[in-house]
Design a protein that fits this description.
It is a single chain. The protein has a domain at about 10-70. About 60% of the residues lie in helices and about 0% in strands. It is built from six helices and no strands. The chain has helices spanning about 10-20, 20-30, 35-45, 55-65, 70-85, 85-115. The longest helix has 29 residues, at about 85-115. The protein is elongated, with a radius of gyration of 34 Å.
């Protein structure tokens, strides 16, 4: 009797479950069926972060150390801050400040002729407690 040839996606899923042994543990415990896992794998793909929890414990530690785990963004932020050139950032901030000042001066120059060179008239405030005598 010959063996049946499996569909290529099923073959890939079999390889995937070998690298994620906790999937088979959940199937054996009855929490989910293998069909459920296959459908999730087919839709999400094998690179989805939700599969990390099904890897062997040693594999999870490697991912965290590489910066792909839970503490990864802090490590990445630290490395970015170490590479940051403070003097270059300071120069960019000075250029930005000068550009903003130039735009403000330009706006003030266009507003002055529109007002006719007059200072703005103070607005008279109405008394909020206007009572009439009876």
């Amino acid at each position: 009797m010959g063996t049946k040839k499996l569909h290529p996606s099923v073959e890939k899923f079999k390889l995937f479950t070998k690298s994620h042994p906790l999937i088979l543990k959940e199937v054996r415990s009855g929490k989910k069926t293998l069909q459920d896992f296959f459908e999730e794998w087919y839709i999400l793909g094998e690179d989805d972060p939700s599969w990390i929890k099904y890897e062997a414990e040693g594999d999870n530690k490697k991912k965290v150390e590489n910066g792909n785990g839970e503490g990864g963004w802090m490590t990445q932020l630290g490395s970015v801050l170490q590479k940051l050139d403070v003097e270059q950032v300071q120069g960019h901030l000075q250029n930005l400040s000068a550009a903003i000042a130039a735009v403000q001066n330009l706006i003030m120059q266009f507003q002055a002729p529109a007002q006719g060179g007059k200072s703005p008239q103070p607005v008279q405030q109405k008394n909020p407690f206007s009572f009439r005598k009876d």
